[in-house]
Amino acid sequence: MLMWLENFLIRYPELALFLVIATGYWLGGLRIGPFSVGPVTGALFAGLILGHFVRVPVSSMTKSFLFLLFLFGIGYSVGPQFIQAMKRGGVKPMVLAVVVSVTGLVAALIVAKVLRLDAGFAAGLLSGALTQSAAMGTATDAVNGLPLSEAERSVLVAHIAVADAVCYIFGYAGVILFLSEVAPRLLGVDLRAEARNLEQQLGMGRSKTGLNSAWRKFEMRAYRLDHDSALVGLSVASAEARESAQRLFIHRLRRDDRIVEPASETQIQAGDVIALSGPRQRIVELVGARGTEIEDRELLDIPIAAMDVLLTRGDVANRTLAELANEPWARGVYLRSLSRGGQELPIASGVTVERGDVLGLVGHEPSVQAAAVRLGSVVSPSSTIDFTVLGLAIFFGGLLGVIATFKVGSVNISLSTSVGTLLAGLFVGYLRTRQPLFGRIPPDAIGLMTTLGLAAFVGLTGIQAGPNFVAALRESGLGLLFGGMVVTILPQLAGLAIGHFALRMNPILLLGALAGSQTVTAALAAIQERSGSPVAVLGYTPSYPAANILLTTWGSIVILVFAG
Known about the structure:
Elements: H1 2-11, H2 13-29, H3 38-53, H4 60-87, H5 92-115, H6 119-129, H7 134-144, H8 150-187, H9 191-202, E1 205-207, E2 210-212, E3 219-225, H10 236-242, E4 249-255, E5 258-260, E6 273-278, H11 280-286, E7 291-293, E8 304-311, H12 321-325, E9 333-340, E10 343-344, E11 358-364, H13 365-375, E12 376-378, H14 387-403, E13 405-408, E14 411-414, H15 416-434, H16 443-465, H17 469-502, H18 507-517, H19 521-531, H20 537-563
Antiparallel strand pairs: 1-2, 3-6, 3-7, 4-5, 4-6, 8-11, 8-12, 9-10, 9-11, 13-14
C-alpha cells in the first residue's frame, strides 16, 4: 500500500502538491493559545515531511510561476500605501520599517558569518527569523543564477528551507511576545491608558460594550414633533447644523398629509412628521422625548444605498474624516467601514484618509452616489481579471529585473525576475489609484494569488528540500536556532529605541509599526487585545508595505553576499 502511494505521488506530482497545500493549511490552522504557524509555514513543514519520504519531482517552472504570481499580487495590494508613504516625507512608521528591516539584514549577515553558515542557511536564517517566507523565493531565484552544478544548487535550496523552518517558530512567536509583553514594560506604559488617550486625540468615543463611533450608526426613523420640540421653528439647515457633530439629517417630512422634500430653508412646524437619519441613540435623545415615533412606510420609503468606494481623488486624500464630513456632498452619507491595504481602520474624526483607501458608504442613494463621485471610484463586485495587464506587467517586470544589472566588484548582479515582478505589481497597484479602470483585479483574486501562490511555492520548496532535510538539520545544529532568536529580537529592540527616543512616536502607534515592520499581523492583534483598542493599526498600515518589499528583496542580497 505504501509503495503504491509513493509511486502514485511520483507519477502525479501535481496531486502531491495539492496534498501538501491541504496538509499545510490544516497544520497552519492549529493553535496553541494565540500562536499558529500559518498556512505558508504549514505548507513548508508538510512539504519537508513528504519530500523526506517520497522523492516527488518538482518543476522549476511551476515554482517560478507561482512565486511570480505571489510577488505581483503583493506589489499590487501594497502599491497604493507604499507610494503614498514614499511621497509623504518623514512618515515615522515607514522610517521605522526601514530601520527594522536594515537592522534585521545586518544582524542576519553577522550571525551567519559568526556561525560560518553557507549561503542557503544564511538566507533561511533571515527568512525564518524575520518571518518573511517570500525571502525564500528571492533567495532561491538568486541561487539558481549562481555558477554552480545542479547538485550544489539543490543543497543550497534545501538549506534555505531547513533554516527557515528552524527559525520561523521563534521568529513568529518571539515578535508577538516581545510587542505584547516585553516592549510595554520597557517603555513603562499602560497600553489601555495610552490607547484611550490616543482615541481621544482622534475623536473616537467608547460605550460600555466596547468601541463605537457615531459615524458608524445609521438609522432612518419617523417622528411627529410636539409643539415644544427643540426642532420646531428651526429651518432644516439650522436643525442639522445644531447636531452637526452627530450627523443628523432630515430627508423628508409629512405636513397636512402631504410628503414634502424639504429645502435647507424649509421651516419645521409642530405636527410635522420628519424622516430623520443619524445615530439611533442621539435621535432618541433629541426627538424621542418630545415627539412620537410613527410607522410611516410611505414617508420612510427612501432609497438607501451601501457601496464601497476606492479613494482616488487627490483633493480629498490626506484630509481627516471630520473635514470630509463637513463637505456639502457628504450630507446624508455615513461611513460604515474604512480599510487600508486590507486592514480595517478605526473610524474617528481625526483619522486621515489616503489614496487607495476603501470607504464603505451608506445613506440616501443619490447622496451616496454623489459622494462616491467626489471620492473616487465605486468598487463594484466583479469576477473579471485584466489578464492582459497582469501578463504584460509580469513579463516586462521580469524583463526589467533581468536586464537591470550593476557591478559589485567583479560580479555582475541583476535585480532578478522576482524583484522586477514585485516592482511591476507596485506600479500597477499605484496606477489603479489614478486610473481605477486600469488593470482591475478583484480583491479575492489577489488574495488567491498571494496566499495560495506563496503556500504552493513554499510547499514545492519543502518537497524539493525533503531528501536533504535530516542531513541539513544535523549540520545546522542548535547554533542556527539561537542565532535566529538574535536576528528576531535585535531589530525589534533597535526599532523600539529609535521609535521612542529619536522619532518620539506614540507608544501604541510605535508597537503597531513594529508589528508591521516584521509583517507579523498576529502581533498587531495581540497589541489590540492588550490595549483594548484597534488604533495600533494606524501604525501598522504604513510600515507593513515597506517592510514587505524590503524583507522580500533581502533574500537575494544574502545569497549574493555569501556566494560572492
